Amino acid sequence: MCGNITIKSLLEALLFGLFFLSDITVAVNADDGIATKKSLQIMTEVWLPYINPEMESLGSAARIIDILAAEMETDIDWRYISYAVAYQLIRRDKAELAFPYFLTAKREKEVIFSYPMFSVTSRIYYNRQFYSEGQVKKGFSSLRTGKVDGYSYGESLDQLLEKAEIFATEQAALAALFNHAIDLLPMTEGVMKTTLERYFPNRGQLVLAVPGISGTSSLHVIAPDTPQGKAAIQQLNDAIDQLKALKLAGTQASYAEDKKSVDLAQLIPAEGYPAILGQVSMGTTNNQYFTLPQGTRVVVLEWSTKILTPSNTDRLYKNMMDLSRVVILNGPHVGKELYVRNMHIHLQ
Questions:
Q1: Count of Cβ atoms closer than 10 Å to residue 202 Cβ
Q2: What is the DSSP track for 78-113?
Q3: 77-86, 177-186, 224-233, 325-334: least confident range
Q4: Helices 189-199 & 170-178, crossing angle to 10 degrees?
Q5: Count of Cβ atoms closer than 10 Å to residue 336 Cβ
Q6: How many CA atoms lie within 13 A of 289 on its CB side?
Q7: What is the pLDDT of residues 115-155, one digit of tens each?
């Protein structure tokens, strides 16, 4: 009896398994005439915070594509490759799709663009360690500009970047801005903020946008200008039309260069001077003074003459009381440029 039960159970299990496997075959075998789930390969590259590195969670822009893919019942195969190379592959009909790209008149003659996926604002940034706002405005046309290889920043800003030096990544371009290898750098606001936080966490207050110069542009999926490319873009556009209620438009070479060091310091009290004061200007007439909490972090923008040049005496009082110019990195006065006495500056 036990033997018969075992054989019967095995036969039932085998029959069930065959039935189950046949269902799987029907579901995935295109030769049986049953439609299989489609797959699209989309080329992209890291563009924080919109496109995150491989093996990390999707960036906000990549999530838009995944939402559309679900509507299209399609799997997305993300392939990471530089934007410049990806664009050329699309232009020459060597790849299916690439994302995200700004639409320009020149590009529109070479590839097919989808409906807008999302929009960003780009600005031109400078390093206030080397220039004031007034100096940038006055000498804008003569300053050295950089940009990232393969990038457009929208047609309004691209016109200002014809002679820009080319860098492989945002990190390399920002390092050049900090190292004074370039004077101006265009970048999307979100990309600048995220790149600073991830790669240059102590220097965010050094980078400022040139006032009055910006461009807001949409980003798109691109495809080859072929019947197949047009069909793929039409599928995406149809999915966008069907999901308008989700308001999708509202979603937001390796780097080996050395990051030039800055004089990062912490403000500390001194004997006889328990309160730390920062002053707006060097003079004493009609000046303003800010009380700075102990432990405030700063970057020294300009050391005082007493620090930079030798002294003819060993009396240190004047050296310690002399003023150096700093930018405040944290606390209630973050972002302010102030003059602080040398005796309060503790290098880290």
A1: 14
A2: EEE--HHHHHHHHHTT-SSEEEEEE--HHHHTTEEE
A3: 325-334
A4: 80
A5: 16
A6: 9
A7: 999 888 999 999 887 888 889 999 998 999 999 987 888 77
User: What is the C-alpha to C-alpha distance for residues 277 and 345, in angstroms, rounded to an integer?
Assistant: 12
Cβ 328 vs Cβ 335: under 8 Å? yes
DSSP 2-17: HHHHHHHHHHHHHHHH
Give the model confidence (pLDDT) of 151-204 as tens digits: 888 777 888 888 899 998 899 999 999 999 999 999 999 899 989 988 888 788
- 322 closest CA partner among 293, 290, 279, 288: 279
Q: What is the rounded CA–CA span in Å between residue 27 and residue 322?
A: 79
Tokens of 301: 């923008």
Whether the per-residue pLDDT at 6 is higher than 50: the answer is no
pTM score: 0.66
Nearest to 335 by CA among 176, 246, 188, 203: 203
- Return the beta strands (E) in 234-316 as ranges: 264-267, 276-279, 289-292, 297-302
DSSP code, position 115? S
Give the 3-state secondary structure of residue 138.
helix
Q: Which of 260, 327, 252 is nearest to 296 (CA)?
A: 327
Which burial class, exposed, middle or buried, applies to 302 when counting CB atoms under 10 A from its CB (0-12, 13-18, 19+)? middle
Task: Please tell me the predicted confidence (pLDDT) of residue 36.
Answer: 59
Strands 38-44 and 74-80, bridge-based pairing: parallel
Q: Reply yes or no: is the peptide bond before residue 100 cis, omega within 30 of 0.
A: yes
Please give the mean pLDDT across all residues of the chain. 82
